[in-house]
Design brief:
The chain is an alpha/beta fold. It folds into 2 domains: about 5-210, L-asparaginase, N-terminal domain (Rossmann fold, 3-Layer(aba) Sandwich); about 220-335, Rossmann fold. About 25% of the residues lie in helices and about 20% in strands. It is built from 9 helices and 20 strands. It has helices at about 35-40, 65-75, 95-105, 130-140, 230-235, 260-270, 290-300, 310-320, 325-335; strands at about 5-10, 20, 25-30, 45-55, 85-90, 105, 110-115, 140-145, 145, 150-155, 160, 165-170, 175-180, 185-190, 190-195, 210, 220-225, 245-250, 275-280, 305. The strands form 6 sheets. The chain has an 8-stranded mixed β-sheet with strand order 4-1-5-7-10-11-14-15, with helices on both faces. Strands 17-18-19-20 form a 4-stranded parallel β-sheet, with helices on both faces. Strand 14 (about 185-190) and strand 15 (about 190-195) form a beta hairpin. Helix 5 packs parallel to helix 6.
């Protein structure tokens, strides 16, 4: 029986993979072969570490569905010989990537943990070491010969969240992410505290990993605001070949009741555009019909985004469109939790 786990580190880019050249002051990507040298604490982990890197590591601001497919392909290629995966990623778009991979990796039975840092590994007060060490430790957790975590997570500053429930909330603090609508899966203190009740319970016997690499980018996000006008609305609704629109509404899914706003929305839905109603609040849920200002949207058959994040909504729409879901089933399937991304 194997005593140690095999963990694959996937470096896509971002601050966590950088070390400072103290002669020049410039940041450069570290060499995975020297990882243990940079972080000797890794020797205490009971696991075998290997690393792969993008040929050209990217700033996460340049992340796109093509790179998501590349991450998914690396996991697919190395899935059998590894027990878990830790994806090193820039923090700016990490919630989008973690959400996307959660949908792309169907029947996932091993941990895929995204992590990053606000400061490079070589800095004096870096958060990179703790984030990386604990992510690897969590990815190595096993119970009765099986991984404890069997989903895509995001670890930052002592907490592991479900990846598709997260949002980046701060550009300066170490506590850069939060999950307002779902509790942490694991908390790191003196000991690792795993909240088993919050983990996805898999029932996928005899089902192998399916990797969906086609993400349809014919989507858009429109955040309504006091003063939004007809020209702005029409310019978005008239985007050529647009298939899905994430509509960020007020509060519990409320929007203006002016005819100039409602009529184009109604016409767009009738013409086949999938409009998903998502609250622009950090936490809480859409409840169409709770107020008069959302009843019209419910009647128009807008997709109910419930408590999904914008990051998960846009990537879920890309995923469903990419898999060729029939238009008549899109609303029903979107409103159904697929990877624990919504209630």
């Amino acid at each position: 029986m194997k005593n140690t786990t095999n963990i694959l580190l996937i470096y896509t880019g971002g601050t966590i993979g950088m070390v400072k050249d103290y002669k020049t002051g410039a940041l450069k990507a570290f060499n995975f072969d020297e990882l243990v040298k940079n972080i000797p604490e890794l020797k205490q982990l009971d696991c075998n570490l290997r690393g792969v890197s993008f040929d050209e590591p990217i700033d996460s601001s340049n992340m796109n569905p093509g790179y998501w497919a590349q991450i998914a392909s690396i996991i697919e290629e190395h899935y059998e010989e590894n027990d878990g995966f830790v994806v090193l990623h820039g923090s700016d778009t990490m919630s989008y990537s973690a959400s996307a991979l959660s949908f792309m990796l169907e029947n996932l039975e091993k941990p895929v943990i995204f992590t990053g840092s606000q400061l490079p590994i070589g800095d004096l007060r870096t958060d990179a070491k703790e984030n990386l060490i604990t992510s690897i430790e969590i990815a190595s957790l096993r119970k009765k010969g099986r991984p404890v975590l069997r989903e895509v997570g995001l670890y930052f500053e002592y907490k592991l969240y479900r990846g598709n429930r997260t949002t980046k909330i701060n550009a300066e603090h170490f506590e850069a992410f939060n999950s307002l609508n779902y509790p942490p899966l694991v908390e790191s203190g003196v000991h690792l505290k795993v909240h088993d009740n919050y983990l996805i319970k898999k029932v996928t016997k005899n089902k192998s990993l399916q990797v969906h690499k086609k993400m349809d980018d014919r989507v858009a996000i429109l955040k309504i605001f006091p003063g939004i006008n007809q020209n702005v609305l029409q310019s978005v609704l008239n985007i050529p070949d647009l298939k899905a629109l994430i509509l960020e509404t007020y509060g519990a899914g409320n929007a203006p009741m002016d005819e100039w706003f409602l009529n184009p929305i109604k016409k767009a839905v009738e013409n086949g555009l999938h409009i998903i109603n998502v609250t622009q609040c950090s936490g809480g849920s859409v409840f169409m019909g709770h107020y008069q200002t959302s009843e019209k949207l419910r009647e128009m058959q807008l997709v109910n985004g419930k408590d999904i994040t914008t990051e998960a909504a846009i990537t879920k729409a890309m995923y469903l469109l990419g898999t060729g879901v029939p238009d008549k089933l899109f609303k029903t399937i979107f409103e159904t939790p697929l990877r624990g991304e919504m209630v």
